[in-house]
Amino acid sequence: MGWLKGLVEVFTGDLATTAYSIVKEYFPPDMSEAEKANIQLALQNLELEKQRQADQAINEAEKRLTDRIKTLEGSASDLLRVPLLGPLMLFLRGCQRPLWGFGAMALDWMWFSHWSLNEQQQSALILINFLVLGFLFGERAITNAAPHLTHLLKARKGG
Predict the structure, then answer these.
(1) CA 45, CA 36: separation in Å to the nearest integer?
(2) In this structure, is the dihedral angle defined by the CA atoms of residues 115, 105, 123 and 92, taken in order, positive or negative?
(3) What's the CA gap between 40 and 46, in Å, rounded?
(4) Do the Cβ atoms of 103 and 131 come closer than 8 Å?
């Protein structure tokens, strides 16, 4: 839901400064600096309140999405009701992240140490890495790893 927060910031970001810069042209000439400061403070409080409301709306939307997923897909505790297969499914579910992670590491190790792959195979391994990193660690991992992966590919090609 990071895109939703970004969208909210577009509409609320630095609202107080923008409003103050527009409104100050209409101040009476005899208005004191203290009164101007009070107006600016009121605008900043308005911005903070709007940001708080936007954050609250984002949190509520994320909670509703999580609740909806839980309702549609069930939770891990639901699996325990299934005899014999339930605990096995929980175990396999818990093993999934380490298996994908170590599998991707093994492929990368073979790629960088032993394999001589064509460009299509390298592209497939890069895609696998991004999918696994995104699944295991989220968007931040992909954002942090992309420059390093690009650097490694350029170094491997000799450029």
Answers:
(1) 14
(2) positive
(3) 10
(4) no
The residue with tokens 């991992």 is: 141
- Contact predicate 104/132, CB 8 Å: yes
User: In the numeric block, which tokens belong to residue 140?
Assistant: 């931040």
Instruction: Report the predicted TM-score, pTM, of the whole model to 2 decimal places.
Output: 0.43
Instruction: Give the whole-angstrom CA distance, residue 49 versus residue 15.
Output: 11
pLDDT tens digits along 9-43:
555 556 666 666 666 666 777 778 887 788 778 87
